[in-house]
Amino acid sequence: MHVKGELLIGGKSYPGKGKAFSAIKPKTGERLGEPFHSALSDDVEQALVHSWNAFHSFRETSLAERAEFLDRIAENILDLGSALIDRASDETGLPKARIEGERARTVFQLRLFADEVREGRFQELRLDPADSDRKPFAKPDLRLRNVPLGPVAVFGSSNFPLAFSVAGGDTASALAAGCPVIVKAHSAHPGTSELVGRALQKAVTGSGLAPGVFSLLFDAGFEIGQALVADSRIRAVGFTGSRRGGLALMEIAARRKQPVPVFAEMSSVNPVVIFPKALLNRGPEIAKQFIGSLTLGAGQFCTNPGLVIVVDGPGLDAFLKAASETITDAAAQTMLTAGICDAFKRGTSRLESKASVDVVGRGRPGTELEGQSILFSTTGSSLLIDPELQEEIFGAASLVVRCKDAAELEAVVKSLEGQLTIALHLDDSDIEIAKPLIPTLELLAGRLLVNGFGTGVEVSPAMVHGGPYPATSDGRSTSVGTLAIYRFLRPVSYQDFPDGLLPSVLREGQ
Amino acid sequence: MHVKGELLIGGKSYPGKGKAFSAIKPKTGERLGEPFHSALSDDVEQALVHSWNAFHSFRETSLAERAEFLDRIAENILDLGSALIDRASDETGLPKARIEGERARTVFQLRLFADEVREGRFQELRLDPADSDRKPFAKPDLRLRNVPLGPVAVFGSSNFPLAFSVAGGDTASALAAGCPVIVKAHSAHPGTSELVGRALQKAVTGSGLAPGVFSLLFDAGFEIGQALVADSRIRAVGFTGSRRGGLALMEIAARRKQPVPVFAEMSSVNPVVIFPKALLNRGPEIAKQFIGSLTLGAGQFCTNPGLVIVVDGPGLDAFLKAASETITDAAAQTMLTAGICDAFKRGTSRLESKASVDVVGRGRPGTELEGQSILFSTTGSSLLIDPELQEEIFGAASLVVRCKDAAELEAVVKSLEGQLTIALHLDDSDIEIAKPLIPTLELLAGRLLVNGFGTGVEVSPAMVHGGPYPATSDGRSTSVGTLAIYRFLRPVSYQDFPDGLLPSVLREGQ
Asked: How many Cβ atoms are within 10 Å of B411's Cβ, its own excluded?
């Protein structure tokens, strides 16, 4: 399979006729191959028509068929071989080893959803039999199952060209639920998107499914994605990206004649709280791990540790010294796009210009296209009066918040916005101090972790990659792990249905 | 317990100081006893402070304690005895037998949630153990549970003074989830609300819970409810009422700094589709059942059958004749409030004035405060071009849609807005014609039923009382049945937590 710069719509592929844009090699700023062309509104309409038509047969596929389809997508992605790895690495500037790891994760995720579909628990089958003798009224027969919402629009993210993109978690969980998917590719990795899209399209054909089960659209701007979300045939939206982007989609979806849910994963600074004994006993060691997590992949993770909260006291100087020394050695890294790199630099400059903020240390300087890691510090009281200090800077920048005592630390924690993760670093003797904070933390984040960092999100039945607003648009959902499938389902109750009219899974003897 | 016209806030009770309003006996328009006074913003603040404070201890109650609390509420409501029945009947104009039935349902519902809490499945406990040998990275220990969202604002509905009001389904499911509740009483039955509120407040005390677990506020207008929904301490909203009211709350909640979910059950015409053989074989019989369902409780049910869709053909005349004859005998009934009665009359007049609409029959005329049942008819093609014909008229009014053939019937069905219920009347030989329609119907309603009517909503684990917008604001939810608890929960994942820091339900050996 080759990158041809084509839209994939309802089993066909052809070049777009809209505005041209190029894949860029972020390491050099060079164009990569021939240009892509944005979809036009006709293409959106075609994708929607195909998607809606495909929905009716796709939702009726057996669990075995749907599971096999997901497995086939995984297989076809692996079959792309090094062409995919090379292209994704070229388009994102991420090392090949990282892309290989991400491919493994993506494939694992598809197979996990295949297993989840086979197992069938997500159908939430419930049978509550009739009781004709009940007084004062006979009790009807009631049966319940979950049904898929309908076609889902998925927006690929910039920072995970495979795992949160064309065949990533949103797509896998929507397909698992029985929803056709239309992906709006992220314009930062269009070639990667096309390759994975072709693998997915091939799986649709190979599984004998209606071609509209999957379509892929390109757009240099925002119009195509917005048109998708505004259309009545789209019944849910999956998005990973900026807060501004997520809010724009939420607003479009809410204004529709029939509003639909938008599952947007938007922004999080993933606070790290270091407790006194851990700070005292292991400050330098934690500092090294922290800088490792902060600078991993140029800090371009939703779960990147952007805020470290500590009580000033013994051990803090050693922690800061070790952090400062460690970050000094951090190489500057190419960021995903020139735009992301610019935003990173603007964000760090803004923070640096604040009187309340000091620089603890910087990584090695780099080129115009590379992000230089940076660690800041401020005081708890400054954070409490300046909400801007809590804003996410996407990249390897973090802020240490020195609180004057445990009460100020608690106030800082309570002032936090919703988060994807909160990490606690503690020793056994810190547990009693940490304990009273847990109920507050549970309200603030979807995942709490001890003596680790949020980067590295397990694809697990017990994972929550979500959290209260603004971490996500719906804090009751997760975009990673098997629970993600429930975003795209709704329950339907069948009352007194004759056997012949019931969905087969709810029939007697099933 | 007596009606004193008092707000119930955090274990205390005192009269409001805001605008006065009276309970009205809808049968006569007379005032019932002393006036009530609206809450002021100070009262809202007090209720919120108490609610937020109570949340921390309430969510930590054991399943057994919380279940016992729910059972105690049920017991205390029964203990109110005939005083409650009399007051609710006086305030709503509904017959005592109906109120008694509703009380039984309310008590059953509380006990069902008590059982659901005891059983504990809603916690969604998931344990995914560590694997230190996994390559390339060790796998962390991950454990998941659902936690309650936080204080919930519940808006009592006018039409179910017990089952969808102070201690109704929203309150019962929110308390079951571990969320404190602040109820904005419906101003049409303030005395009933106060009595039930006192029973609930007594259960809070009796169970030794923090007094802020429950508060009750009165308001003659909308300000108090809107202030509740706008406040950051309210984390979810339960509402049953008009589309306008629900949309207003959705907008307030969406504009908050931290948006929260609004579960609003708003409007539905609950289409009834009668298939050819059933129409031919049992038309008159179905007509009688239909008019019975339509006129039950003056038609003041969310699930009232407001639209009947049939293909013109043999049997239709007999159906219409029987319906017309049956409705002629239907007594005019007092409606819940003068405002509701006015709206009903305006709605039926508007429909009657349309050239495309004929009157099939009317019930007996009544007083100014009574609703006269009415049955209209129109054609499929008229419905397709005039969306107003699909609008809910709250009360005993329904519209028969005569379709010229099966294709037009399908087009009419596909043009429907989201519904709570869709009922199918069919004989065995209709099943093959009905079958292809089911997938479409599943997308349109939360509950599908055969040879019955939507009125009479079972409180069951397999019930869905919800449906796509505008039936509800979130078509993935139900406000009746045990699944309702999930509206007020969100998952949290705990990674590598030491046993001493884990919530007890997730500890080893639990």
From this structure: 15
Taking a C-beta distance cutoff of 8 angstroms, is the pair A305, A398 a contact? yes
Cβ contact B395:B299 at 8 Å: yes
Query: Which residues on adjacent β-strands are paired with residue A399?
Result: A307, A376
Q: Which residue of B has its CA nearest to A482?
A: B126
Q: Rounded to the nearest 10 degrees, what angle do helices B96-119 and B81-92 cross at?
A: 120
Q: What is the C-alpha separation between A170 and B99, in angstroms, rounded? A: 47
| Residue B34 banded pLDDT, cuts 50, 70, 90 | confident
Cα of A391 to nearest chain B Cα, Å: 14
pLDDT tens digits, one per residue of B118-134: 999 999 999 999 999 99
Whether the bond between A365 and the residue before it is cis, its omega within 30 degrees of 0, is: no
CB neighbourhood size of B248 (10 A): 18
CB contact under 8 A, A449 and B496: yes
Quick one: which of B91, B94, B24 has its CA closest to B296? B94
Answer whether B431 sits within 8 Å of A463, measured CB to CB: no
Q: What is the pLDDT of residues A91-144, one digit of tens each?
A: 999 999 999 999 999 999 999 999 999 999 999 999 999 999 998 889 999 999
pLDDT of residue A149: 98
CA distances, B376 to each of A423, B313, B360, B386, B421 (Å) = 63, 18, 5, 15, 20
Could A476 and B497 be called an inter-chain contact, meaning their C-beta atoms sit closer than 8 Å? no
Cβ(A89)–Cβ(A96) under 8 Å? yes
Measured CA to CA, the distance from residue B503 to residue B178 in angstroms comes to 15
Please give the Cα distance from B461 to B374 (Å, whole number). 35
Judging contacts by C-beta atoms under 8 Å, the chain B residues touching residue A492 are 442, 445-448, 464
- pLDDT tens sequence across B459-510: 999 999 999 999 999 999 999 999 999 999 999 999 999 999 999 999 986 5
Q: Where are the beta strands (DSSP E) in B241-353?
A: 262-265, 272-274, 307-311, 333-334
Helix (H, G, I), strand (E, B) or coil at B439: helix
A194 is catalytic: no
pLDDT tens track for A354-366: 999 999 999 999 9
* Residue A255 burial class via C-beta count within 10 angstroms: exposed 0-12, middle 13-18, buried 19 and up: exposed
**HSE value, Cβ hemisphere, 13 Å, CA-based, for B33:** 15
**Nearest C-alpha of chain A: how many angstroms from B22?**
35
* CA atoms of B188 and B335, how far apart (whole Å): 11
Q: What's the token pair of residue B352? A: 């009657």
Query: Mean pLDDT, to the nearest integer, of A452-460?
Result: 93
Confirm whether pTM is higher than 0.90.
yes
- Residue B197, both tokens: 């509120």
User: H/E element holding B342?
Assistant: helix B338-352
* Single-letter amino acid, residue A417: E
Tokens of A409: 């630390």
Q: In this complex, do A491 and B498 lie within 8 Å of one another by their Cβ atoms? A: no
CA A431 to chain B, closest CA, distance in angstroms equals: 7
Distance from the Cα of A31 to chain B's closest Cα (Å) equals: 34
Report CB contact under 8 Å: A431, B498. yes
- In residues, how long is chain B? 510
CB atoms within 10 A of CB B367: 12
Does ipTM surpass 0.95 in this model?
A: yes
Q: Which of A302, A392, A408, A417 is catalytic?
A: A302
Considering only CB atoms, which chain B residues are within 8 Å of A494?
A: 447-449
Size of interface A-B (CB pairs under 8 A): 191
Q: Are B142 and A457 in contact (CB under 8 A)?
A: no
Compute the distance between CA of residue A289 and CA of residue B269 in angstroms, rounded to an integer: 60
- The CA distance from B258 to A264, in Å, is 14
The answer to whether residue B265 is catalytic is: yes
Residue B20: enclosing H or E segment and its boundaries? strand B20-25
